[in-house]
Design a protein that fits this description.
The chain is mainly alpha-helical. The chain has helices spanning 12-19, 23-31, 50-64, 69-77, 85-96, 108-115, 121-129, 145-154, 161-190, 195-239, and strands at residues 39-40, 46-47, 103-107, 133-135, 140-144. A hairpin with a 5-residue loop joins β1 and β2 (46-47).
Length: 245
């Protein structure tokens, strides 16, 4: 079963080229169950879609963070089976955030290359407001590499800049509160251990906690949106009912 949100149209060669890996790598991941099987089309040619591209990108990101193949298999096995390519992209962005804070000074041309698109003055203004790309001397920017991918995606979201910044504030405040409470919870567990044990526990807990928070938040948000949509649909449904006499 595939989670692609569009008709699978890529051959294995095209998928490998799109993901920047070899065909051998794609087939190896498939044999390990890290990739869903392709959809078999005419002449029994396997076809892949956006979900496979997104999952390959996530696997590559996990490898760059130093995770072993066994750890990657466990990580992917804990993900909900119905994740969309967009959901997988969010997970990849979260995984990238495990890396140390990385800020670089780049030119406008390099910023657009990494963004994968031309950036108008309004786009730059919004990225600056989000703290993703801060103007420096000349035509250069201090870029937060961990946030750039997410910031570029937000450029296409039909929300005002004020709404995006307000949402960012809410997320930062609540995530900091959750992090503080979890740290207090774990503090007692490591009180009697030496510094190396504490660092080892932190390294193991970080990705697990992040994944748990992300999965829990996704489910909670879906439920909130469902209740909101049900509530907004209620008046319309009532208006279609039998008029009172």
């Amino acid at each position: 079963m595939t989670t692609d949100a569009e008709e699978p149209i890529l051959t294995v060669d095209e998928l490998a080229a799109r993901a920047g890996v070899t065909v051998r790598t794609v087939r190896f991941y498939g044999s390990k169950g890290l990739l869903p099987p392709p959809v078999i089309g005419p002449r029994r040619v396997g076809r892949y879609g956006a979900g496979h591209v997104a999952r390959l990108a996530l696997i590559e990101e996990l490898q760059q963070q130093g995770m072993t193949l066994a750890a990657i298999e466990r990580y992917l096995g804990q993900l909900p089976p119905d994740l969309t390519p967009h959901d997988l992209a969010i997970h990849r962005a979260v995984v990238a955030s495990w890396a140390p804070d990385l800020r670089e000074t780049v030119s406008r041309q390099e910023l657009e290359r990494r963004a994968g698109r031309p950036l108008a003055a309004e786009d730059i203004e919004r990225l600056t407001a989000m703290g993703v790309a801060l103007p420096e001397e000349g035509d250069t920017f201090c870029v937060d590499s961990g946030l750039l991918r997410l910031g570029v995606r937000l450029l296409d979201v039909p929300l005002s800049q004020d709404a995006i910044l307000a949402a960012r504030k809410v997320l930062m405040e609540h995530s900091r509160a959750a992090a503080h409470e979890l740290a207090e919870l774990f503090r007692g567990e490591v009180a009697e251990r030496d510094a190396r044990d504490v660092k080892s526990l932190s390294a193991h807990m970080h990705p697990l906690v992040v994944q748990a928070l992300l999965t829990t938040f996704q489910r909670s948000l879906k439920e909130e949106l469902r209740q909101w949509l049900d509530g907004t649909a209620a008046p319309e449904a009532e208006s279609r009912g039998t008029p009172s006499v």
